Amino acid sequence: AIEDHFDVSPELEAALLRKGDRARLDELARIEGMARLSFVRQQRALGLGHAVLVAKDIVGAEPFGVMLGDDLVDHPEQPCLGQLIEAQARFGGSVLAVMRVPREQVSRYGVVTLEPGGPVAPGLHRMRDVVEKPHPDEAPSDLVVIGRYVFSPGIFPALEVTPAGAGGEIQLTDAIRLLLRQEPVYALEFAGMRYDTGDPVGLLTTSLAYALKRPDLAPGVKAFLRTLRLD
Ligand code: G1P
User: Fold this and answer.
1) Is the CB of 130 within 6 Å of ligand 1?
2) Mean pLDDT of 211-219
3) Of 40, 49, 122, 161, which is most buried, counting CB atoms within 10 Å of its CB?
4) With contact defined as beta carbons under 8 Å apart, do 180 and 101 qualify?
5) What's the gap in Å between 110 CA and the centre of ligand 1?
6) CA dihedral 55, 57, 61, 63 (to 10 degrees)
7) Hey, whose CA ends up nearest to atom 1 of ligand 1?
């Protein structure tokens, strides 16, 4: 669906031309020119780390971004990935987006330990360790990794030697631990609002929040919400 969305659409274009719909034709041209996409399939569900590893040949030997599709981050000026790219360009290594969550929620995430000594730039810390989905009582902090990363290509050799871990899956977190022994990894407390669409309530509330930001949708959605009698 994503490939089709950004591809040329000759039939739609012809229909819009016949109708003389200039505005939509312009919008179509804008979308077609937006991105060049390459795809690779992860043929078996062997884990997030494995999913990143199958992109190795497409990525090549340069830093690259990883975005987990069920996490959205909203910021009016600079996308979260852009914030990570900026930090990586300045300090090198790899940079992970992190945020604080209530203690009882840490077991859903990778949880980080920072190096002592304070931030190297506002909100940017050297990372010492990361552990995947610890029990709240054993978690090293309340600082968790969300689904935005910029990795140095050094993550690939680390992934290649990462055995299956929690849940029998090749965990990205385990490869990051190996990478930490070789090169610096930073944690950036990003600016922006993070939405998790990974469960039904999250998907619904995220859709609502994004609808309320759109001038074409907000009035109708607000009018509906006002009719609800919430307890
Ligand atoms: C994955 C990662 C985890 C990270 C999380 C962010 O977990 O393994 O380290 O904190 O994404 O959303 P998943 O959500 O796939 O269980």
Assistant:
1) no
2) 97
3) 49
4) no
5) 6
6) -20
7) 109
Q: Output the pLDDT for position 33.
A: 84
Tell whether the model's pLDDT for residue 187 goes beyond 90. Answer: yes
- Which pLDDT score, from 0 to 100, does residue 230 have? 85
Task: Report DSSP state, residue 104.
Answer: G
Q: Is 147 in the pocket of ligand 1 (CB under 6 A)?
A: yes
116 by DSSP, 3-state: which? coil
- Give dist(CA 223, CA 18) in Å, integer: 36
pLDDT band at 231 (very low <50, low <70, confident <90, very high): confident
CA distance 111 to 106: 7
Mutate to test the pocket of ligand 1, among 107, 108, 206 (most ligand atoms within 8 A of CB): 108
What is the rounded distance in angstroms from the CA atom of residue 114 to the CA atom of residue 143?
A: 9
For a ligand 1 pocket test, name from 72, 98, 145 the mutation site with the most ligand atoms within 8 angstroms of its C-beta.
145
**Backbone torsions φ then ψ of 214, nearest 5 degrees:** -95, 120
pLDDT at 212: 97
Instruction: List, as one string, the DSSP characters of 55-68.
Output: THHHH-SS-EEEE-
pTM: 0.91
